[in-house]
Amino acid sequence: MNSKQLQLQSFERLLTIMDELREKCPWDRKQTFESLRHLTIEETYELGDAILNHDLNEIKKELGDLLLHIVFYAKIGSESDSFDMADVCNEICDKLIHRHPHIYSDTVVTDEEEVKQNWEKLKLKEGKKSVLEGVPKSLPALVKASRIQDKVKGVGFDWEEPHQVWDKVQEELNELQVEVAAGNQEKIEAEFGDVLFSMINYARFLNVNPEDALERTNKKFIKRFQYLESKASELGKPLMDMTLAEMDVFWNEAKKL
Description:
Radius of gyration: 25 Å
Strand content: under 5%
Mean pLDDT: 91
Number of helices: 12
């Protein structure tokens, strides 16, 4: 049995188990699209953590959890004759073929950027009124900003050089400082948002994923702060009773580690 046959066999096994759980398990019988939604989002974040940690075994497990959710949604859809797993697979297959004319037709592309531009043009031809329709409203703001910028880039709305984007960052920072000095809280928030948006744009020109970069910094901070907490515990001294200078000694130790 070759690799593809083994994969198909294991997928069939999962579909069979899903049928059995939906029929026999009280918890699985009770689930709906709505009740699974927040769990799916949680599983996606867990996969994201595993990817950032470069934990291949954990990535494998989290992919399994996500795949279960996809199969679960398809099973629920089949119960109202709306769609089943075959419909889900065929839908994405048809989309991939249609969106890759440079593979399945006679379109010629020279690089990755042309592929992305063709992708957005095809979506508009499919009836979408805006290239931004594909950005989910419920995305976290930082991720949403990144996707918005990536989408408009696909139709040519973009800066030409990285230094132009950096100049924009400087401009937005200056505007923020003006509003901070004026003390207008509403305008401060608006300008702060502009600074973040421009920094996310600059990250794109640096080939940096801003979400990943910020999460790595979060993890780094947590690790250093927990080192500080452990050292304070060893001294039997609560952090609140330590001076900033004392904390700084252990913080710098954590940075060296």
